[in-house]
Amino acid sequence: MRHLSALFALIPLVFGLLLATQSMKAERSARASLGWPSVTGEIVNRNQTSTQGRKKLRVDYTYAVDGVAYKGRRLSFAANKADYPDWAKRFAPGTRIPVYYDPGSPATAVLVPGGESVARAIFWAGWGCVVFAAGLLWCHFRDGRTARPGPSA
């Protein structure tokens, strides 16, 4: 049973580390996207759904860089879902929009550059999980050191 409590602490530890590392990547990309060049693209499809209170917005767009055609779906590296209603109106099918692309890899593009503040908030949430897990592990091992065997029969 004691090993189960240590295993339980590993779940938020692993989750927190994954969340923190993924958000660091998103923050770097979000920050870099602020300096990316843009080309004119076109929205080809927009699908907005809401299930169990979770809103999802999918936007498909096309763009061309140096004569090479690309398709994209990424709105932002760290989207704030509160922006979805505005984005759903802004990104209607047939709308011509600026597409910001990575000059080193033009297949990587976004419609809304930036978003690093959202990624930073996710990063700190991930580290919160890590600190919580560290506290659980500390309690687990501290209790193991101070536990005394019960009286023998």
Helix-strand blueprint:
Blueprint: H1 2-33, E1 38-51, E2 54-65, E3 68-72, H2 84-90, E4 96-102, E5 105-110, H3 116-146
Antiparallel strand pairs: 1-2, 1-4, 2-3, 4-5
Helix pairs in contact: 1-3
Q: What are the defining features of this structure?
A:
153 residues; 46% helix; elongated; 29% strand; alpha+beta; 5-stranded antiparallel sheet
Protein model, in words:
This protein is elongated. The chain has 153 residues and is of the alpha+beta class. 46% of the residues lie in helices and 29% in strands. A hairpin with a 2-residue loop joins strand 1 and strand 2. The chain has helices at residues 2-33, 84-90, 116-146; strands at residues 38-51, 54-65, 68-72, 96-102, 105-110. The protein starts with a helix and ends in a 7-residue tail after the last helix. Strands 3-2-1-4-5 form a five-stranded antiparallel sheet.
